[in-house]
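Severity: low
Component: inverse-folding endpoint
Summary: output formatting inconsistent between runs
Steps to reproduce: submit the following structure tokens with default settings.
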């Protein structure tokens, strides 16, 4: 159903569903994980989506239009995915340890964008971090840092 919606939107906008982001592009894999975080608790808030859009643009040095294209492609990829491995395997091949930690950090940033972390979001980040070979110690420290920053009113 989500794929039909994205196809419909692309058709109205005058373009096809094809994007500049290949399926093995680490940015698409990361964005799809972030979309999964936003949607996992069943509540898709404007705060989380706004944070997601800003993170994609900032972290991947994308224009607003390219960030939106990436987001649309990520929504479609997330809807097609059966597990997290499809995304984490791409990220493991493309990123070093610090890059994988940044992905976990981005996941927490999106999760905390609405003011709190649900157990669904925390569990999802835990599972993704395990697949990304980010240690439990690092994940807990990243979560604490992001939580502290979000409680301090840090917008981005």
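Observed output (run 2 of 3):
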């Amino acid at each position: 159903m989500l794929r039909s919606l994205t196809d419909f939107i692309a058709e109205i906008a005058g373009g096809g569903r094809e994007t500049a982001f290949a399926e093995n592009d680490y940015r698409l894999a990361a964005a799809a994980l972030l979309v999964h975080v936003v949607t996992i608790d069943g509540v898709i808030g404007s705060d989380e989506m706004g944070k997601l859009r800003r993170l994609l643009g900032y972290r991947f040095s994308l224009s607003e239009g390219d960030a939106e294209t990436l987001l649309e492609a990520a929504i479609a990829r997330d809807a097609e995915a059966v597990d997290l491995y499809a995304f984490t395997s791409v990220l493991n091949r493309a990123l070093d340890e610090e890059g994988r930690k940044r992905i976990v950090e981005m996941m927490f940033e999106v999760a905390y964008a609405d003011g709190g972390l649900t157990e669904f979001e925390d569990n999802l980040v835990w599972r993704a971090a395990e697949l990304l070979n980010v240690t439990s110690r690092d994940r807990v420290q990243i979560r604490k840092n992001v939580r502290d920053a979000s409680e301090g009113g840090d917008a981005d």
